[in-house]
Specification:
Helices cover 32% and strands 18% of the residues. The protein is an alpha/beta fold. The protein folds into two domains: 267 residues, Alkaline Phosphatase, subunit A (3-Layer(aba) Sandwich), CATH 3.40.720; 106 residues, Phosphopentomutase (Alpha-Beta Plaits), CATH 3.30.70. The longest helix has 19 residues.
Amino acid sequence: MRIVLLVIDSGGIGPAPDSVQYGDAGANTIGHTACAVGGLELPHLAAMGLTGLLSIKGTPQMALSGVAYPVHPHANGKDTLAGHWEMMGLTVTTPFMTYPNGFPDSVVEQLTVAFGRPLLGNEVASGTEIIQRLGARHLVTGWPIVYTSADSVLQIAAHESVVPVDLLYEWCEKARVIMQGPNLVGRIIARPFAGDPGHFQRTANRHDFAVSPWASTEVDMLLSHGVQTVAIGKITDIFSGQGFSSYRRTTSNLDGLQQTLNVLQSPHPHYQFVFTNLVEFDSHWGHRRNPAGYAQALKELDDFLPKIWNELDRDDQVWITADHGCDPTYRGTDHTRETLPWLAWGPSLRPMIGEARNTLADIAATLAAVFKVPVIGDGHVAQALLEE
């Protein structure tokens, strides 16, 4: 028995009940993306039930072959850690720190001492924009570009020819130690880049140094009961490697899908859980407010799905969900608080559209029921996904 969980990083499907509290009333990542490009054909996602959850311009209703639920996130926060941890039964109740005015002097002083040099930036910024603006000065001085966003992050950008990637990672580890207690941020992110002034580009050597889960998650429970747990993409960073028997780095959404397919095509134990994050939806298209790129990424996912379906045995399933929204047509560049999809496809499933679920922790509860292990968190089992 194998369960594959694919996360459309930011794939929201419309306002959540508490969207107004987050300033996100009216956000609809997938629905608005389809409208912005004049229509989008997603027949395989529709067959899994996506069009049973929202209207998608250009995608008609298809014969239903999967199970679909709308899910209202419960965590106090709309960031990557909050969403993924909730999926595995650990719900964030106190949001991580954010810095809308940059980091305080006390933090800057500690970072300067730790890095042995001054900092550039210290502002809220787009990562692609700030390296174009400050990259030339960084080349001359060797000073790291430090910035944040609306998320709970401290990001450090450095040119790979000036600051070797290993040194950048070392700085991030030092920053991780500093950003604790009253300054706790969810992630320290290494953002190496390359190229010449005016043509800087971030490389694939990004690495997230996330705060570790403060308690066991459902992944830990699966692993401790003999289930092989495989992390693909930034999943291993999100959980600080905790609970996974193996992991695979990725360079793109398509690489993440291919890596997932490779795992399915490889020899495997009877019980296996594959957890994949498709980060480009968020990092490349959502935050950069690029609906055309987002639409193309959705089409690439849709086109790839039959390859995954073809590798599933009778008791295997592929699930698709999201950790938050990031509507590329919305104001600002922040994540958006939205209802999220939970789609499932498997040879033995009876197609249906289910009622709304009130926490992503239902995924953890259902994983526990599928693999017959104790449940972490307060989620409820989606009975339609259990073998009869």
